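Hi, here's the filled form for the chain we discussed.

Project: internal
Contact: R.S.
Residues: 429
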Amino acid sequence: MATYLKDPNPPTTEATQELRDRVSAMLLEIERGGIDAVRRYSRDLDAWDPESFVSTAADVARVEASLDDSLKEHIAFAQGQVRAFAEAQRGTLSDLEVELGDGVVLGHKNIPVGAVGAYIPGGRYPMLASSFMTILVAKTAGVEQVVGCAPPQREKGIHPAMLYAMHTSGADAVVCLGGVQALAAMAFGLIDGLAPVDMLVGAGNAYVAEAKRQLFGRVGIDLLAGPTEVLVVADESADPRLVAADLLGQAEHGPTSPAGVIAIGEDTARAVMDQIDDLLTTFPTAEVAGEAWRNHGWVAVAADDDEAIALADEAANEHLEIHVAEEKLDSYLERLRNYGSLFLGEQATVAYGDKGIGTNHVLPTSRAARYTGGLWVGKFLKTCTYQRLSPAGTRLVAPAIEAIALAENFEGHALTATMRLERTGGAGA
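And the returned structure, exactly as it came back:
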């Protein structure tokens, strides 16, 4: 049985009733009041009240000219990685048509969602990479209209690099709005003539998450995400300082971000903890990362690989790094079942996945990896079935359908089968 040198203390992710009521009231007011209510909330909450919330070509040209060419090249590299992986994933999803019996043809088509609203968070940090993971992947899936939406930096509007990333990721419109009012405006179709979106994607704070939850049903959503998480499995071959750096690097997202270690052997666990303490003396974001580690970091000691894998699957973490001997990595890949994204070997760090190696960073948190993966190109596709029958097909299928419908007391259903069967010269004619 595993022992804990630092006990898990997951953050509270359930929205308070006060927050739920506040979001519900905002959504209702915006639905009734339209763009005037959106503008009032934007003015009151973000001190942002422009003539239009939609960024212009001149806005894009201005920020493009202001950015370093090297940064633009790096953005293009990351976009290329994400696009190539999304295209490869899309290539695995094929339409299907199969004949199941004489004259009975069944199939499915993968149809892109019509319109998507992508929320790009920009509170504590300007999240450039979120554009790649949402806007770019949606466009790769074939979504016709993608609206990118990001909060203003007060009177300055969208962060310049974020605006550039959103535009070059393929957004058909870039909107400067934050929080609940942004999601409501996209869902209700209140932004300068843009149609209501069919789906909302992207991360955000507790208000954004609650707004997505309450809007679900009216629109689709990707998933409901809480504070970001990282878990590292490490054995005696791991570099404890590298493990410590990866834990703190992800913890800098915010003071409620959990970071965990499953160490195979107590010596490894204590070495990692010592390195965390040492790094925090000079870590660039020690104030945030240190608070996250103190309040929500955890360390478990496993007896062997089997116990480490069982603990990791139970944790069902958003990001799972595996720092074990090279020859064991394939076994971990084969056996692990519950994770948002998996990083195999010491060269693979969460930062790569977060910023642009190609896999998506919109991932399940709070143990949701037990039942779902993260955002990917297939999330923007509807797999819709169809049927096509000949008279021979009706003669094959109708008797069973008629009998089952009558057994369920659905006489009208049965009649629709009976009528077709009679017209083909089958039983009952």
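Let me know if anything looks off before we file it.
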